[in-house]
Amino acid sequence: MNQRVLVLGAGSVGVFIGGHLAAAGMEVIFVGRQRILDDIAEHGLRLTDLDGGSTEVSPDRFGLALAPDEPELADLVLVTVKSAATAAAVRMVAGRLRPGTPVVSLQNGIGNDTVIREILPTCLVLAGMVMFNVVHRDQGRFHRASDGIVAIQDDPVVDRFADQFRAAGLPLRRYRDLRPVQWAKLLLNLNNPINALSGKPLREELGERDYRRCLSLVQAEALEVMNTARIRPAQLTPVPPELMVRLLRVPDPIFRRVFGRVLAIDPLARSSMADDLALGRRTEIAWLCGEIVRLGEMVGRPTPVNRRLTELIRIAESGDPRRYGGSRLLAELTGAATAVQG
After folding, report:
1. What are the φ and ψ backbone dihedral angles of 283, each rounded to 5 degrees?
2. Of 68, 197, 306, 317, which is the most buried if we count CB atoms within 10 A?
3. What is the 3-state composition of the chain as percent helix, strand, coil, each rounded to the nearest 5?
4. Res 263: pLDDT
5. How confident is the model at residue 339 (pLDDT cuts 50, 70, 90)?
6. Handedness of CA 231, 236, 242, 246 (dihedral sign)
7. Residues in contact with 47: Cβ distance below 8 Å, sequence separation at least 6, in sequence order
């Protein structure tokens, strides 16, 4: 019998992961917003990637729902909503899943698995992380626009579905402790607000030195706070995070020569935060820069750069359409840091 997978959050990542699982023969039910459900109901799925792969999944290969239907039949639950929606999403299935059902958080940020565990105490909740960017191009097209893996907290229960993920082209990299990976991914995701404020595609933004210098400032501050808290992020890139902070500042020609693969991103790809602002939705800034601000408060270290970036995103969320050139955003962030030092 095929395993039934309930995907709570039919956004870009949730549909890409769930779509590949459906193509591999799993019974997948997507729960999400009407807009995306209508799109994939009409067009089916075409899942592509930057390496040239392409998978098509017809609408009769998956189920769709605005709210979970018969969640007690689920063999696996994937939580792929934005962090702000975690509690609301899992409350829809609270008390309805079978005891011991594996529930995997495939979300940005730190601690979503803790939130889920509190609401679903009888389930086996695991932290996970999707390391690549997915672009939704409408008409059922979802494109993996960057390199990356699917990471998961190791547990014997993973053996139940690891083979299906592998068959779907999504081999799970298992970690005894996922927290260092989550902190490392958070460091990378600190570019999300920079990209959102730039108004540019990711490849174009990362190709400009001043934007990378902004990212260097934000990451350097985050690493200082993590070091004070004795948090050691994993190394997810070819170079350790401390060295990457310095290399982000090099001139554009050198960066392109040394880190060409970093820029091997779909030309239209943007951060999910940029998409949220464009759609008038609240962003995950509280689970990215806000996480660094909270950690700084806990260990007694100021975080003016992450705090200012949070403020700028909050202004954008209020409907302010302004976009920041690299030099202007850099001035905003260096000014915030200088004010505290003064």
Report:
1. -100, 180
2. 306
3. 50, 15, 35
4. 67
5. confident
6. negative
7. 16, 19, 20, 23, 53, 54, 55, 56, 57, 142, 143, 144
